Amino acid sequence: xxxxxxxxxxxxxxxxxxxxxxxxxxxxxxxxxxxxxxxxxxxxxxxxxxxxxxxxxxxxxxxxxxxxxxxxxxxxxxxxxxxxxxxxxxxxxxxxxxxxxxxxxxxxxxxxxxxxxxxxxxxxxxxxxxxxxxxxxxx
Length: 139
Known about the structure:
By secondary structure, this protein is α/β, with parallel strands linked by helices. It contains four helices and seven strands.
């Protein structure tokens, strides 16, 4: 695929922060928030990661269009969104998020403030679609 760019950073609410990524032995369960690794015997160590915001990525890559953003970050959803103000205001993309219950209230409030409509839960109970109200004709 020619339109894929790998960025060796963790997307978060601030750039150039060093975080400890707690690695899980179960695929898709690693997190910067240790409490999301519920099973004690699945801890597989840790790695140090530097952060970047979605806004900074957009600026660095000089993106002119963003239609959709998919976020699945094992508990850091709200943090990622806090670093996406420019993306939301300029591009008004659709968001597909896997939301951990701890963040659900804050994330719903966040999207209401930006005038997004929520659809879900979808096929999995933690997955939600957020659509800008002006694009509501899609569904």
